[in-house]
Write a sequence for this structure.
């Protein structure tokens, strides 16, 4: 068993700027009505990159510009003819016009479920409920281009009634992503045991969705390291084609199936891996009452993930460091994770602090210990144990989380870290009994102590 | 004095907030929150894991039908701010108050002019008389009690009566809930 003392873990460092926050009225005026919007359609999981335009924005003057139009029969805020989207140059002049594939918005229903108009007579709340629309681009845009959005008067061709500031950039377009990284590698080790200076090129190419308006999201990616020496032990290629989709229409349950070919650049080492995976939340009810209030509070369901993998090795390059592996290998790996468990009874340990016993439960009381639990197992049907039974390796970890505010000395010595947000800094004491799938499922047991700063 | 204008959009906004809360119903703590506490909760403290965030995004994509991206959960830190990104409550409160303001502010007057108007010019009689009392009487049933408390009504009235204050101050104060 290995013990690591005081491993400082900084998850997210957040510098407190709250004292510098603008007053509400100024921040309301500063928000642009034009923003980039990236989301996934569900259950197809197709990624969508759109321009969100908040038609009801007052500070920008957009609502006032379109309110008179919205009383006319020619106005339809879901029509692409009402909008003009252009790439502009550095001086703000239009460089090229972008085509719109569609204009979309959530279907409107009032509190009683009746259809409700989005943009007719927008200054009259008795008939309208002004909101945003999404402009879905047909054209490709690079991330260094800036975009100007104009709203047109549909009854007067070419008449612009409102313009954005022309500073919008889109970072999440649907283009293929390509990253090439050349590098030199002095004294790189070769598969024949020698070393030499080589040049390498890292290639990462991917597309998160090959088809639009598809019932599922088909993706492709490749990650390669091409070397000037074919014996370079680091040379590698990996090409993956897969698809993903939600299993249930109204409950988040994505699953994916992918095929991946992997090997080195001369294909003297070559294997195919088929992966099927799914993840979801489990429907959850935790009993209310005294047990919940005083003993154990588990307000959130566990995350469940299942992954099955089959590997067929066509060729293997056996070296001193890479022993011969079975031609066919498979594994099934279910795992569960609880991210938020509280122990309300632990606040009684802080009897000297009058604040500790104030709130019932832990949701608004920082004087509770927290727990995080991860459990899983590897089922390896091709791998037999000494007793000739199929191999199963369980693993898991438990973390005890101590908010720094619990410690009475910290409240006076470290007021920034302990004030206002009870979970800002916490001590994590973790015990992990883990298996490493990349190292023949070797088992390690480890204690870790750390301090985390959390946003 | 004309009757209070329609509060339909304000009522719909709070029904959407309720639907946001319903979309977090897998979280026993969020489910039990009053509307104000939920509205001001940090999204990423209620939705901790990727699956919880995905479930929320899936549920609000069905009802009320808003398309939330994962990055939005960080960009718009509370549920109130997130919902305001799609449906701005400030606009609805502003249009509601604008409808009975003194001339020249009611429609077809510009909303931006009304926001920038001094409270004294928009409601010359102040908070003790019509049309303000009519407006508040119409607003109370449109908003959950926890989100439009007597204390907030008093504060909004005080802002309205403060010399030099602008309508944007009153609007953002009411839309800030409390």
């Amino acid at each position: 068993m290995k013990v690591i003392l005081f491993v400082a873990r900084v998850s997210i460092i957040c510098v407190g700027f709250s004292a510098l926050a603008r007053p509400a009225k100024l921040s309301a005026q500063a928000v642009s009505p034009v923003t980039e919007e990236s989301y996934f359609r569900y259950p197809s999981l197709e990624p969508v990159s759109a321009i969100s335009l908040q038609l009801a924005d007052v500070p920008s003057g957009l609502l006032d510009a379109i309110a008179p139009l919205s009383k006319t029969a020619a106005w339809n805020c879901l029509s692409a003819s009402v909008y003009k989207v252009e790439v502009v140059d550095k001086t703000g002049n239009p460089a090229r016009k972008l085509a719109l594939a569609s204009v979309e918005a959530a279907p409107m229903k009032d509190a009683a479920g009746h259809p409700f108009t989005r943009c007719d007579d927008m200054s009259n709340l008795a008939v309208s409920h002004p909101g945003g629309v999404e402009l879905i681009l047909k054209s490709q845009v690079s991330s260094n281009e800036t975009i100007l959005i104009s709203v047109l008067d549909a009854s007067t061709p070419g008449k612009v009634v409102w313009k954005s500031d022309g500073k919008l950039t889109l970072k999440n377009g649907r283009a293929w992503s390509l990253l090439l990284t050349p590098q030199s590698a002095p004294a790189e080790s070769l598969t024949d045991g020698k070393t030499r200076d080589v040049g390498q090129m890292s290639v990462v190419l991917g597309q998160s969705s090959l088809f639009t308006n598809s019932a599922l999201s088909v993706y492709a990616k490749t990650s390669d390291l091409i070397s000037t020496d074919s014996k370079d032990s680091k040379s590698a290629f990996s090409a993956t084609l897969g698809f993903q989709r939600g299993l249930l229409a109204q409950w988040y349950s994505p699953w994916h199936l992918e095929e991946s070919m992997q090997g080195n650049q001369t294909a003297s080492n070559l294997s195919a891996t088929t992966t099927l995976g799914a993840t979801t939340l489990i429907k959850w009810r935790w009993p209310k009452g005294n047990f919940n209030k005083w003993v154990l509070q588990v307000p959130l369901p566990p995350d469940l993930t299942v992954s099955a993998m089959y590997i067929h090795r066509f060729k293997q390059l056996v070296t001193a460091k890479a022993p011969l592996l079975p031609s066919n290998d498979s594994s099934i790996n279910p795992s569960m994770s609880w991210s938020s468990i509280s122990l309300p009874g632990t606040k009684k340990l802080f009897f000297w602090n009058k604040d500790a016993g104030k709130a019932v439960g832990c949701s608004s009381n920082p004087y509770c210990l927290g727990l995080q639990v991860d459990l899983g197992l590897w089922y390896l049907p091709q791998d037999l144990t000494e007793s000739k039974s199929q191999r199963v390796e369980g693993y898991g970890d438990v973390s005890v989380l101590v908010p720094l505010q619990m410690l009475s000395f910290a409240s006076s010595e470290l007021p920034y870290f302990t004030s206002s947000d009870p979970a800002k800094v916490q001590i994590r004491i973790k015990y992990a009994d883990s298996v490493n799938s990349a190292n023949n499922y070797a088992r390690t047991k480890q204690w870790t102590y750390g301090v985390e700063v959390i946003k | 004095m004309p009757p209070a204008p329609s509060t339909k959009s304000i009522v719909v906004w709070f029904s959407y907030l309720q639907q946001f809360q319903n979309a977090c119903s897998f979280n026993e703590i969020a489910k039990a929150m009053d509307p104000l506490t939920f509205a001001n909760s940090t999204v990423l403290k209620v939705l901790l894991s990727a699956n919880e965030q995905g479930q929320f995004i899936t549920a609000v994509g069905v009802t009320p039908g808003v398309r939330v991206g994962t990055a939005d959960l960080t960009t718009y830190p509370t549920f109130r701010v997130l919902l305001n990104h799609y449906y701005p409550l400030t606009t609805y409160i502003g249009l509601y108050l604008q409808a009975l303001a003194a001339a020249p502010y009611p429609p077809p007057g510009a909303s931006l002019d009304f926001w920038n108007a001094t409270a004294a010019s928009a409601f010359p009689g102040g908070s003790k008389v019509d049309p303000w009392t009519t407006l508040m009487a119409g607003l109370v049933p449109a908003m959950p009690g926890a989100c439009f408390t007597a204390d907030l009504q008093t504060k909004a009235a005080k802002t309205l009566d403060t010399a030099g204050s602008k309508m944007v101050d009153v609007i953002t104060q009411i839309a800030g809930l409390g």
